Amino acid sequence: MLTGLSIGREHKAFTSGPKDTTLMLDHVKDYYGKTLQSSADLQTDACCTLDAPPQHLQTVFAQLHEEVVNRYYGCGLVAPDALQGLRILDLGSGSGRDVYALSALVGERGSVVGVDMTDEQLAVAREYRDFHAKAFGYAASNVEFHKGYIEKLDELGFEDNSFDLIVSNCVINLSSDKDAVLQQTHRLLKPGGEMYFSDVYSDRRVPQALVDNELLYGECLSGALYWNDFINTAKRNGFADPRLVEDRPLSIDNEAIKKLVGPINFYSATYRLFKIDSLENSQENYAHTACYKGGVENNPERIIFDKQFSFEKNQPTAICSNTFKMLSESRFKDHFEFNAGDCAHVGLFATNSTATLPFDVQKKPTSGCC
Ligand SMILES: C[S@@+](CC[C@H](N)C(=O)[O-])C[C@H]1O[C@@H](n2cnc3c(N)ncnc32)[C@H](O)[C@@H]1O
């Protein structure tokens, strides 16, 4: 149900969450546990993934149990490259769609842990551990699910520096303490580890009246961070150089919701954040190059790192010093040949963007869901 509200003249500078966080938390639990039965019940395409996944992911998704897939409410693809053998944590794992897809991609020696606060979502996810172990030909399941809050991961007993990769799909917008989530994430990642996640962002700060609207919040819209506030939140929690991987504008077809959000534009975007202490806040040029040697599964000739950097096999590519560290101090290191040159600084690394928005405004929003 839509509550009547006026956005009126409210100009709150920066909202960090709903006024009554406990009430909103209960509402979100109810929304994902009871109100929604499948992705078809959503009112917008914020919690949907519309782009066709690459072939290797389509093959994995086709092996997943129907109930797990039907209760998928993610907004992007959280399956980066080079996953074999990794230990992965999924924040807000819902019915487990991404956990099970990652379970297939890490192989039997890898493992995936899902955390969610909603009993109904966890029940669906837990139900199919054996089903998927069998589907992937594993002797035993390599996944587990824990009930908990992503802001309070310290209550779940995970050790510091214990995950290679942390993913999340359309969840952090629902958190009223995004700093706590990123702080916990940073603590749990191994050095050189990565947070790779899809979420919803706005092109301006969302007025408090909209943040407090249960439907807009539950639909993953009004809890979205203004993208530049997200960049600063990431930086202050140890992730100095967030990298945008892909994005798309969200379409809002529901007229009542459209009227409420007014001029605010929402985007779904996937970022990668590396836990590497020596990263700088700016991209500096030391005339470094990296050359992709091949060998990353499903990337025989070319690998895309983010929207700015991609690598053709056997072709040295100029990179900034942060990218040099992200590749040479992470799981990607063995797949590249690096040339550090004489390490003399030659100024800022040239990027050709002067845009006020990092997302692709030319892309057409696609309507319809999943
Ligand atoms: C939009 S759904 C996405 C679920 C899943 N990632 C997917 O792609 O299907 C949001 C999920 O996050 C969970 N969630 C929201 N806020 C949470 C929090 N603070 N702590 C733990 N789980 C949370 C909800 O219970 C729900 O299952």
Task: Tell me what the structure shows.
This protein is α/β, with parallel strands linked by helices and 370 residues long. The protein has two domains: 21-274, Vaccinia Virus protein VP39 (Rossmann fold, 3-Layer(aba) Sandwich), CATH 3.40.50.150; 288-339, Ribosomal Protein L9, domain 1. Helices cover 26% and strands 20% of the residues. The protein contains twelve helices and 13 strands. The strands form three sheets. Strands 1, 2, 3, 4, 5, 6, 7 and 8 form an eight-stranded mixed sheet that branches. A three-stranded antiparallel sheet has the order 12-9-13. Mean pLDDT is 91; it is low at 1-13. The structure holds S-adenosylmethionine.
Q: Tell me what portion of residues adopts beta-strand conformation.
A: 15-25%
State the assembly state of the protein chains: single chain
Low-pLDDT parts are 1-13
Q: State the end-to-end distance.
A: 22 Å
Number of helices: 12
Mean pLDDT: 91
* Strand segment count: 13
Alpha-beta content class: alpha/beta
- The CATH homologous superfamily of the largest domain is named Vaccinia Virus protein VP39
Sheet of most strands: 8 strands, mixed
Cα-atom radius of gyration: 20 Å
Give the topology string: H per helix, E per strand: HHHEHEHHEEHEHHEHEHEEEEEHE
Look up the CATH topology of the largest domain.
Rossmann fold
CATH class of the largest domain: Alpha Beta
Proportion in helices: 25-40%
Number of domains: 2
